[in-house]
Amino acid sequence: MNDLIRRMDAVTEAMGDRPAVITDSVTISHQEFQETATMMASALQHLGIRKGDRVALYAANGMEFALLYIAVVRAGAILVPVNLLIKPREIAYILKDAGVKALLVQTSLRPRIQDILGDLEALSIVVEIEESPHPFQNLKPLLRLEGGWVKPPIDPDEDLVVILYTSGTTGFPKGAMLTHANLVANTDSVHVAMRWRQGIDRVLVVLPMFHAFAATVGLWTPLMNGCALIPIQGFDPEGMARAIDRHQATIFLGVPSLYSVLLRLRDDRVRLFQTLRFGIAGGAAMPVSVLRAFEEKFGIRVYEGDGPTECSPVTCVNPIDGVSKPGTVGLPVPGVEMRIVDEQGCLLKDGEVGEIAVRGANVMKGYWNQPEATAAVMMGDWLLTGDLGTRDAEGYFSIVDRKKDLIIVNGMNVYPRMLEDVLYTHPSILEAAVIGQPDSRHGEVPIAYIACHDGQSLSGQELREFCLNHLGRHQMPRRFVVLERLPRNGAGKILKRELRKEGEHDRGVSGL
Question: Residue 400 domain-assigned?
Answer without folding.
Answer: no
